[in-house]
């Protein structure tokens, strides 16, 4: 397998979220993919195989386990494919369901990819789970923004959305990693989407990701898609909407994610970003 390395949601290799990309993983079994992801060491590596109908079958592995969907690795895969085969529209089959991704060049020549997620949905976070999660994070109920209620959100993977009342609260991230790993495993959460609302359409996010073996993810496209669905379902944004999510700033790896939220319910959420080869 040829292993490519890209950073997604940034034009600077020192920013964004690194992802491994294998454009032709034909013949690789699950053990080989997991071992490859562990050797790459990024939060996720995407493995693509072209099927007979022209689609790409894509699987995503962290260094520790397979995950059903990964936004930043999808963006990286699409840009890597475009560099070799030209821009256009790709149809992906992922463990979470079908995902379309379109690549084009921006006015300055950078390759930009837009994925459209599977249909999003939300679910309540049980009171006991919320209390446990806040205790692990060291947050209190007073630290929460009442305008953005806690909720589990899905657009290919599940993420509890927890909104901070201030940017300062979001900036102070310190948690019990083994305890959060155990809670997330019980509830099948992929990352925790901690957010702060700067304006009606601008948000800041941090995503603890202990199931992937890392303290924090610098850019999480799957969580951004789920968050867009959460805002639409709960009527917390006027749709159609274009949102900007800033992530990775507190880690020194600034990332910018553009989220497009259609007005039609039960439709996929668009996630747009650049990617550059490392």
From TrEMBL:
Keyword vocabulary terms for this entry: Isomerase
For the keyword S-adenosyl-L-methionine, the answer is no
Q: Which family does it belong to?
A: Belongs to the PhzF family.
- What is this protein's record name? Oxidoreductase
Q: Which SUPFAM superfamilies match?
A: Diaminopimelate epimerase-like (SSF54506)
Matching entries from Pfam families are given as: PhzC-PhzF
Q: Which domain of life is it from?
A: Bacteria
Q: Which InterPro entries match?
A: Phenazine_PhzF-like
Signal peptide extent: none
